[in-house]
Amino acid sequence: MATSSTGDVDLTLTHHGEPITLTFAQDATIVDLSERVTSELSIPPSNQKFLISPKFGLLKPPFKDPTLPLSALQGKKINLMGSTTAEITSLNDSISKAAAPRRPGPLKAALPARNRDWKKVQEEAQYTFHTLRPLPYLPNPDRSLRFLERLRDDAGIKAAMRTHKFSVPLLTEMDPAMHTTHESRTLGLNRNQGEVIELRLRTDAYDGYRDYKTIRKTLCHELAHNVWGPHDRNFWELCKQIEREVERDDWTRGGHSVGSQEYAEGPGEEVYDHGGWTGGEFVLGSNGGGGETVVSSAGGTVQAGSLSRREILAKAAEERVKRARQAEESSRGSGEAPS
């Protein structure tokens, strides 16, 4: 930030990796900055977070000191975290489409095939994450999709999903700017007792991805919330059981790569969440109190009562079984032995 020759204050923010310069009067305050971000960048105050270093740390509306002059921020690095109204609308539309009821056709009987466990194929098609959704407005969404695919296809996760008969319509990533305070950061959220699971794949600065085993452990934690909401004894017993099952059935072990990217297998970090699912309703982008972005059907984006979970899962299972059979028939037609 610099003071121009006219006495105005030029302030440079970084948002999604891009620098943005705004000019203010000499007596402008942090409230003026928030209002400009709202009007010019379409980021509502409830989504705004300013990470200012050194000294100031994380500031967000409503500010503890609304009279803080912008001139005091001269020479500071300012990172603006927050989603625009358009980005939130796009994500809500994606969630609505994933949860929209569909009319399934009749399930066809599986064709017998040598060395193929069709019962296992059908169970894996039914007990899985039926839709994977990276955040399209963050950098490299294709890499986030590969991360989500790796979690879905993890041998230990697949075995635990079958064992506990978990079917999750939507697995998506969480914006690191959301659910962050000085004291903690949320690594996962479970919406509507397993309708949607969000995972914090990226680092807080958007410049990388978190340790794979930490995210997998977070996923085990959120899957346990499909059954138990509060963090009571029942929840922790199931959570630890799922973690043991995933470790036991993960025949791959060790480090792995996804595409051309390597994801570290470090010691991990502590898993935080908000204690399970909220009553059966969600809408991203509304303010549910306490400064958090929560989900609520009050905005009309998703009406939980109108969802037909059975129809959604039956159609997804049918499609996965169909693809498996087509791959099997193609393999036999090309003269290859079935796997």
UniProtKB/TrEMBL annotation:
<feature type="domain" description="WLM">
    <location>
        <begin position="120"/>
        <end position="322"/>
    </location>
</feature>
<dbReference type="InterPro" id="IPR013536">
    <property type="entry name" value="WLM_dom"/>
</dbReference>
<dbReference type="Pfam" id="PF08325">
    <property type="entry name" value="WLM"/>
</dbReference>
<protein>
    <recommendedName>
        <fullName>WLM domain-containing protein</fullName>
    </recommendedName>
</protein>
<feature type="compositionally biased region" description="Basic and acidic residues">
    <location>
        <begin position="318"/>
        <end position="331"/>
    </location>
</feature>
<dbReference type="InterPro" id="IPR029071">
    <property type="entry name" value="Ubiquitin-like_domsf"/>
</dbReference>
<feature type="region of interest" description="Disordered">
    <location>
        <begin position="318"/>
        <end position="339"/>
    </location>
</feature>
